[in-house]
Each structure stands twice: as C-alpha cells, then as structure tokens.
Amino acid sequence: MHELSIATAIVEQAAEIARADGATGVASVTVRVGELAGVVPDALHFAFEVARDGTALSGARLVVERVTARAWCGGCAEEFALGMPPFFWCPRCDRPSQELRGGRELEITDVEAVPAPA
Q1: Is the pLDDT of residue 27 over 70?
Q2: Which end of the chain has fewer CB atoms surrounding its CB within 10 Å, N or C?
Q3: Is 76 annotated as a binding residue?
Q4: 116: which DSSP letter?
Q5: Rounded CA separation 90/111 (Å)
Q6: Do the annotations mark residue 47 as ligand-binding?
Q7: 2 annotated among ligand-binding-site residues
Q8: Measured in Å, how far apart are the chain's first and last C-alpha atoms?
Q9: Which annotated residues bind Ni(2+) (predicted)?
C-alpha cells in the first residue's frame, strides 16, 4: 500500500508548513487527487490516520478533493472527461486525444494550522 508513504509525506510537509507559520499543530490538510494518480482515496484516509499519530497532526483531518481526468481534442477544440478506465477518444469528433489536461494531480492545496497560544 503506497498510500502509507504518500500519507507520511503529507504529514511531514504539513507539519513543516505549520512550524514555518509558528503554529503548534494542524487542524486539517486538503489534498487534490486526480483519477489517474494511482491513489485510492479511502486507503489514503486510512493511511493518514496511521501516519499522523504522535505528530503535530495527531488531531488533523484529511480532506480529499477528487479531480476528474480530462483530455483535450485538438481536432475540434473540445475538452472532455476520460472516465474510468480512461478512454482517450473525443466523444464529439471521434478522434484520439494526445493531450491530458488533468487527472494526475497529487498535491497539498491547504493546511489549516492551529495557532500558537498568545
């Protein structure tokens, strides 16, 4: 389960961001996960709960924003969803697409820090 190594990296990066901001902990971390990223969101949630124990994120929640895989058809200038399994043929003009526009994302987009007491 490679989601555990991904969750560990998320915890480490979020803790680093919180420290840099002078926070004592993290309330939540938001990540964008594309359909084609090879990450199972439920497994990532489970792995995150394991990885956060004993860290500044021990009470943090993980918010996963799923990103639909999309491609671009140069023939008819149409962007379309690929579906799962991905199908790279344009539904409008029936030509193959050679440009992926989204769906491989795996990125932290927000870290909600717990401020240090005044």
Answers
A1: yes
A2: C
A3: yes
A4: P
A5: 37
A6: no
A7: yes
A8: 41
A9: 2
Confidence bin at 118 (pLDDT 50/70/90): low
> Is 67 strand, coil or helix?
strand
Query: For residue 54, what are the CA distances in angstroms to 50, 75, 77, 78?
Result: 9, 53, 50, 48
- Helices marked H in 1-118: 3-20, 41-52
Give residues with Cβ within 8 angstroms of 34, minimum separation 6.
Answer: 66, 67, 69, 102, 103, 104, 105, 106
Give all strands of the β-sheet with 70-73 in edge-to-edge order.
Answer: 78-81, 70-73, 99-102
Per the listing, tokens 């943090």 go with 60
Q: Does the pTM exceed 0.85?
A: yes
Among 94, 105, 40, 39, residue whose Cα is nearest residue 70: 105
Residue linked to tokens 């560990």? 8
Average pLDDT of the residues in 76-102: 92
